[in-house]
Design a protein that fits this description.
heterodimer, A: about 475 residues, alpha/beta, 12 helices, B: ten-stranded mixed beta sheet, ten-stranded mixed beta sheet, globular
Chain lengths: ~475, ~425
């Protein structure tokens, strides 16, 4: 591989196949296509939801009907036809799973392929991860529930939470992302089918990583899940989220809402490895990922978003922090890799409301093929946010001459005691950098791997151990042949 | 066509003016249609997200035939009046426009080989190329200028001419509800070199609206540097736009100093059409009371091997608002571009606002582009350092702010202009 150049790398990137493109052959329970009031009532009934939730959904539907799709993002895609999507699909269940042994072998196989082997985890104890597995629209299995319950931690599917912890759900749902927030949030509020719910009681430090695995399996469906994480005073939780979808020629829609609430002195660490099907190398198919993620920090609380984005045909996602309480901290670490015809418009919003609030933004974009990768971020310092502090850094790496990298930071400051720094760079891997490695006996391939790894390290370091390995693997697949 | 015939359209009163319009009938009718069919931008319009123009929208402006306040000072005293707007010790032509019209009494044109200066309403050669590159679609202000422009300056620096003098342009406004809409042309032909200052001033504190467009072309191997000084009254609404076309191997630099005005919007659009160009954009703003200054710059790198460098710095006090929106485009195949963009702000009061939006849009890979934006306040430690050496707080503050802005002021190449700008900024720093 002596003559391995960046061009070779780019070629390999182009031809790289999507590893999670398989379809699981499970009978599923799928709602007829189309979106109307009856469908929402049907979903609500199927889930045996209380009256207030149905009202919430219908209200959101009314609001959604009055809204138009946002068009400001730097992405181009055929507008999804919201009447030709099936809004509910669930792997057909014969009965409720009582234990792990009840789960169908096909499902187990799917999880195994995805690298979630609950079987193994069942045997291992202590350092493992509690997983909630959401396939299509429905949460399939949650592990370690009992163990967590001993500490008073609630970790279950959203539907279960609605049944068993109705008061908590009612109190916090929609408090950070209101239904009228945006087009997709309103749509999600109307038709969401499942998701994860997590509550950490006062002063409890969650002993293991909580994880949700999202998978779209059925064709012609959209996935609309909702995640709600509430960390009560003084608690800590680290939450992981992974996403994959089968390879299909159609564009599938994923419109999720994630709400985090960190009460006084609490800390939430939310990590995502997003690997939805990105479409093939001609840009056919792939998932449209339009996600609203937002966290609210009370006094002394901290929310940290870490994301590794490698999938989706179109990504539109801005995990945000509302720093409401004094001394609260918001962090955003992101690596976004786009290839072929992928388009990503992603970034964050840091809204500083309280005194002495701090935020850090580290965003690394890698564009390859004919893709477009944009960073769009907002740092807003309100009038009363004395001594607010922000540091933003967004770097873009360009691998081919046909891709694009863009930066759109919005910095709005209304307080004179604030300190805001923003810097961004765009460049390709320097020939001098590669030459430096070469002359020390490192092959070009290894050099590129070294440089890309170093480039992302700041972000990858933020991931929890279990996930960091997976993320590195993902990067390795995305940049196959270069990252060791 | 002299009037707009559409019922509810925004209109400027031209009854007092007997001047002809300088843009072609074709462009004017297109502009008229756009004025009739386009609303004023609101904060929902991305390019006007932080700037409200309701005051302009709700005021009925008029074009004046004569200069009311100027009338008394024509003749003997006028030279004294104009003196205070001149840059001390700077020799060369002085061209004065009062309320949008060329004033031959107040102007002095120093002839030089290869230099051609004349007001556009007396010209027939420049007129025919006017407005060809100005986008009118959805742009109500450009359309208003196109429709109502009655005068402006045309400057041509012929091929191979290196101007010895600096050309001073002075745009004076006066009178209530005055509309000023100049259309200027600056043409630097191949291998020429020129330095031009543009000084925007007011005689009184009346509400007025200046909507000026300057079309600039820099030929191959030409060097043009422009210093733009805005020190209009606190009631002035200014929308000042420059459209620059740069050909290969040329250098263009522009320094914008904004000290006055109520609402100031600078649109600086630079198209880099040839290789090996250098582009320098700098700006400094010192804002107080309720001033609102919006600097919008677009550098469009269409071809390879170019460099652009942008530096805007400002100090914002009281309830003032500053907006910075710098955009750098690097088009496909425009490789080996070095683009640098930087914006620094100091907020002096808790009611001051800064909105900064430095953007990069890049479609080529072998480029080095970066931008930075900082917002902060006076460094208390630096002030303490100075205070401990017997310097008063006020003086210390002034020294630190002055030093902060010096980066930009230093970019003015002409020493007389630099001294002038320095004294202006010193005066406007409230102690």
């Amino acid at each position: 591989m002596a003559n391995y150049t960046e061009d070779d790398l780019a070629k390999e990137l182009e031809n790289q196949e999507y590893k999670f493109g398989f379809v699981t052959n499970i009978e599923s329970d799928k709602a007829p296509i189309g979106l109307n009031k009856e469908l929402i009532q049907m979903i609500s009934k199927k889930k045996n939801e209380p009256e207030w939730l149905l009202e919430y959904r219908l209200k959101a539907f009314e609001i959604w009907k009055t809204m138009t799709e946002p068009s400001w993002a730097h992405v181009q895609y055929p507008k999804p036809d919201f009447q030709s999507i099936s809004y509910y699909s669930a792997p057909k269940q014969k009965k409720k799973y009582e234990s792990w042994d009840d789960v169908e072998p096909e499902l187990k196989e799917t999880m195994k392929k995805l690298g979630i082997s609950m079987d193994e985890q069942q045997r291992l104890t202590g350092t493992s991860v509690a997983v909630d597995f959401v396939m299509d629209s429905v949460s399939v299995a949650t592990s370690f529930k009992e163990k967590l319950a001993e500490l008073g931690i609630i970790f279950c599917s959203f539907s279960e939470a609605v049944q068993d912890h109705s008061e908590l759900v009612k109190k916090y749902m929609g408090s950070v992302v209101p239904t009228k927030d945006n087009f997709y949030a309103a749509l999600n509020s109307a038709v969401f089918t499942d998701g994860s719910f997590c509550y950490i009681p006062k002063g409890v430090r969650c002993p293991m990583e909580l994880s949700t695995y999202f998978r779209i399996n059925e064709g012609g469906t959209g996935q609309f899940e909702r995640t709600l994480v509430v960390a009560d005073e003084g608690s800590y939780v680290s939450y992981l989220e992974g996403c994959t979808a089968p390879q299909r020629d159609e564009n599938q829609l994923h419109a999720a809402v994630v709400e985090l609430i960190a009460l006084n002195d609490a800390e939430i660490k939310y990590s995502t490895v997003q690997n939805w099907y990105p479409g093939d190398k001609d840009g056919v198919g792939g998932v449209f990922n339009f996600v609203t993620k937002r966290g609210l920090c009370e006094k002394n609380a901290k929310i940290s978003w870490t994301q590794v984005e490698t999938g989706s045909a179109v990504t539109w996602k801005y995990p945000s922090c509302i720093l409401k309480g004094e001394n609260s901290v918001g962090e955003f670490y992101s690596v976004a890799v786009t290839n072929n015809y992928q388009q990503a418009d992603t970034g964050t919003k840091m809204i500083h409301l309280g005194k002495n609030t701090k935020s850090t933004i580290i965003s690394k974009g890698i564009s390859s093929g004919k893709s477009n990768n944009s960073y769009r971020g907002l740092v807003q310092i309100h009038k009363n946010a004395e001594n607010a502090r922000n540091f933003s850094q967004c770097d873009s790496l360009l691998m081919t001459d046909e891709c694009g990298a863009h930066t759109f930071p919005y910095i709005e400051c209304k307080n004179s005691s604030a300190k805001i720094e923003h810097e961004a760079t765009t460049s390709k891997i320097g020939e001098d950098q590669i030459f430096y490695c070469n002359q020390r006996g490192i092959s070009t391939e290894k050099a590129i791997s070294l440089i890309v790894n170093g480039y992302c390290k700041e972000v990858l370091n933020q991931l929890p151990m279990e996930f960091a390995v997976e993320a590195q693997k993902l990067l390795a697949i995305s940049l196959e042949g270069s990252v060791g | 066509m002299s009037k707009l015939n559409v019922g509810e359209t925004y209109e400027i009163d031209i009854n007092n003016s007997n001047q002809a319009f300088i843009l072609s009938a074709e462009l004017r009718s297109k502009a008229a249609q756009i004025i009739a069919s386009t609303d004023f931008p609101t904060t929902k319009t991305e390019a006007w997200k932080y700037t409200r123009v309701t005051k302009i929208k709700n005021t009925k402006f008029k074009i004046l035939a004569d200069f009311p306040l100027w009338r008394g000072i024509k003749g003997e005293e006028s030279s004294n009046q104009i003196d205070k707007f001149l840059i001390p010790n700077l020799s060369g032509s002085v061209i004065v426009f009062v309320n949008g019209l060329f004033s031959s009494e107040l102007s002095t044109i120093e002839a030089e080989n290869g230099l051609e200066i004349l007001p556009l309403n007396q010209d027939n050669t420049f007129k025919k190329d006017l407005g060809k590159l100005i986008p009118l679609e959805n742009e109500i202000f450009y359309s208003l200028n196109t429709f109502y422009a009655q005068d402006g300056i045309a400057i041509r620096i012929a091929k191979n001419t290196q101007l010895k003098q600096t050309i001073q342009l002075i745009f004076i406004s006066s009178g209530e509800n005055t509309y000023i809409g100049n259309r200027n042309v600056i043409r630097c032909e191949d291998f020429s070199k020129a330095h031009i200052t543009m000084n925007y001033v007011s005689l009184d504190n009346e509400l007025a609206f200046n909507n000026t467009i300057t079309e600039i072309s820099v030929g191959s191997n030409a060097h043009l540097s422009v210093d733009k000084i805005q020190q209009e009254s606190e009631s002035m609404n200014s929308i000042i736009s420059e459209f620059v076309q740069q050909e290969k191997d040329s250098t263009f630099s522009i320094n914008t100093f904004t000290l006055g005005g109520d609402l100031v919007r600078n649109n600086l659009n630079i198209d880099v059409n040839g290789q090996n160009c250098e582009t320098y954009l700098s700006g400094a703003y010192i804002l107080k009371s309720k001033q609102h200054v919006d600097n919008h710059t677009i550098v469009d790198h269409k071809v390879a091997y170019c460099e652009s460098n942008e530096l805007y710095k400002g100090v914002i006090d009281d309830q003032a608002t500053a907006v910075f929106n710098g955009k750098v485009f690097v088009r496909k195949d425009a490789q080996k571009i070095n683009a640098f963009q930087s914006n620094g702000n100091i907020l002096l009061s808790n009611t001051a606002t800064i909105n900064s939006k430095p953007e990069l849009e890049i479609y080529a890979d072998d480029v080095k582009c970066s931008h930075g934006s900082t917002t902060g306040q006076l460094d208390e430690e630096a002030i303490f350092y100075l205070k401990s050496r017997g310097i008063s707080y006020k003086t210390a503050k002034k020294m630190i702010v002055g030093a902060f802005l010096e980066d930009v002021i230093k970019r003015v190449s002409n020493e007389h202009v630099q001294l002038y700008v320095n004294s202006l900024t010193n005066n406007s720093l409230k102690v």
